[in-house]
Amino acid sequence: MIIKSRLPRPLKLDEPLRHASHKLPKTRRDFLAQGFVTGAATVMGPSLLATLLNPRTANALSTDMMDLAVNVCEITNGNGKIPFICFDLAGGANIAGSNVLVGQQGGQLDFLSTAGYSKLGLPGDMLPNNSTTNFVNTELGLAFHSDSAFLRGILTKTSPATRALINGAVIPARSENDTGNNPHNPLYGIARAGSKGSLLTLIGTQNSDSGGNSMAPAMMMDPANRPTKIDRNSDVTGLVDTGELGTLFSDPADTVAVMESMARISQKKLGVKVDSVSPPNPTPPVTTTLADDIDIKERVRCAYVKTADTTEKFSDPTELNPRLDPEIRGSASIFTDTEFDGDREFEKTASVMKLVVPGYAGAGTISMGGFDYHTGDRSTGEARDFRAGQCIGACLEYAARRGQRLMLYVFSDGSLSSNGMVDNSAGGRGKGVWTGDNQQTASAFFLVFNPTGRPQLMGGTAAEQARHQQIGYFRASGDIETAGSPAGNAVNLLVETVILNYMALHGQQGSFSTTFPNHGLGSPALRDSLTAFNPL
C-alpha cells in the first residue's frame, strides 16, 4: 500500500507560526519573528524641540535668513545624502536562490548544482539554468528568479520606467537563526556617514535601540540618534506642532515673518551682524562668559530660524500625512484605499517612506514579522515574501514619483532550506517546501534607484561587473562560502560592507577608514572589491 504524505494547511497571511522545535516565544522579537505581532504602534511623537532641530531648506525665507539657514544652521533636506530604507524580515526569510539568484565565484549566473538549488527551494524543472525555460529576470538590474515572490510583489508596485532605473547587489552572508542578537541594522552607521533628515535623523517601526528586530553593531550606536518609532499614519502627522504662534495668523507667511523678526532681534542682541544693510549694534553684545560662548549664541540664533522654517514648511498638516498623499493612497496611487486601510504592513511602509524619501528623516527601518516560515509547505512563505516585495516596490515607486534617489537594503536573521519535497498547490507554485532553519543559505541584498539613470556597476568587463554585483559567493552545494568576503561569516562586517557601498554611491569610499577607524574591511583594494557601483 502506498501512503501519500499530505502537506500542512498553508497559513493565512498574518497567522502566527507555531514550531514544535522552537522555544515558546517570550520576547517581543520572538513574537515578531513568529508572526504573533505585526508591529502595533504606541504613539511616541518626539518633543517640539526635537522636531525643530533640523528643518529642511527654507525656500520661503528672506534672502538673509535663507543664507543663514543653509550656511550656518545647516538646514538641509536629508543633508544632501541618498535616503536609506532597510527591511528587517524577522524570523529567517529565504533570500538566496528562490528570490535573488546566487552563484559561484563568477557571480549570480555562475550557476550552482541541481542539489544546491534544491536546498534553496528550487526543483529541477525551475532551475535558473534550465535548458528549456528562462527563469532569470534582470528587470531590476540585479538578477532574480523569474518566479521570485519578492520580484512578483515588486512588479505590482513599480512601473517599467521605474524598474529601468534600478540596480542592485546581493551579499552572501551567514547570520544566526531566529534571534534579534544579530548586529544586522546599519542605521547608526548610515547616520555617521552623514545622512540626517530635516525633522529626524533615524526612524524605525519598533521601539528598540535599532528601530527594528535585529540589533545595531555596538561600536556604531549613538544614543543621540536613537530611532524614533514610526509605524502608522498618526505617528507621522504627530511629529510637528507649530504651536500657538502658528494659529495666530491666517496666512502662514505672517507667522514666518514674525519668527524672522525675532531672529534678527536676537542676533542683534548677541552682537551678530544680521545682514549687509543693518547698522552696527550700538551697544556691546551680551556674553555668556562660558568657554563655548560662540557656539551657544549660534544655537540660539539658529533656533529662531529653524522654527520659522518648520512653520513655513509644515503649517499645512497634510504635508506629512501619508493618508492624504495622492502618490501613496488612492485609486491611481501606490496603495489603493483598501490596501492602505486594511493592511498594517502597507500603512507602516507608507509611514516610513513618507518621511525618508523626501528627506524628513535620514534613514529608516521597516520590520516585518512572520518570516520563520518553515512550516512544511511552500504557500505560507510565498504569500509573506510577496507582500514584502509589494512593500519594497512601494518604496522604490514612491522615490521615482518624487524624483528622489533611494538605497533600499533587505536582510533577515538567518535563513532556511528545503529537503526537496515539492508543494504543488496553487500557493506553493510547484516549489520546494521549507523544512528547517539553515544559516548556511542566508544572504542580504540592496537595490538603488537613481532618477537620472540606472546605477552602473564597477568593472571594465562583464565578468568584473558580475563579481561586483555579487559580493562573495556560494559553493555549488548551495552553502555560503564563508571565506568569499569579510561579510560572509561576520554580521558586523556585513553591516560595514553595506555602509561602504552607501558611501561609495556618494564618491566617499575613500573616507571610510576615517569615518570608521576600527573597521574590519581591510585594505583599499579589498574594499574596492566589496563595492558594487560607481558614484551616482
Helix content: 25-40%
> How would you sum up the global shape?
globular
Number of helices: 18
- Kindly report the average pLDDT value: 84
Distance between the termini: 64 Å
What's the arrangement of strands in the largest beta sheet? 4-11-8-1-7-5-6
Unreliable stretches: 39-59
Q: Please describe the biggest sheet, giving its number of strands, its sense, and whether it closes into a barrel.
A: 7 strands, mixed
Question: H/E element string?
Answer: HHHEHEEHHEHEEHHHHHHEHEEEEHHHH
Number of strands: 11
Radius of gyration: 25 Å
Please indicate the percent range of residues in DSSP E strands (runs of 2 or more): 5-15%
Structural class: alpha/beta
Architecture overview:
The protein is α/β, with parallel strands linked by helices. It has a domain at 28-43 and 84-239 and 363-507. The protein has 18 helices and 11 strands. It has helices at 28-33, 48-51, 63-71, 114-119, 149-157, 160-163, 187-192, 233-237, 245-248, 252-270, 293-314, 337-342, 344-356, 379-402, 462-469, 491-505, 512-515, 524-529; strands at residues 84-89, 136-140, 142-145, 166-172, 200-204, 228-229, 361-368, 406-412, 416-423, 431-437, 443-449. The strands form 3 sheets. A 7-stranded mixed beta sheet has the order 4-11-8-1-7-5-6, with helices on both faces. β2 and β3 (142-145) form a beta hairpin. α5 packs parallel to α14 (379-402), α10 packs antiparallel against α11 and α13 packs parallel to α14. The longest helix has 24 residues, at 379-402. Residues 39-59 have low confidence and may be disordered.
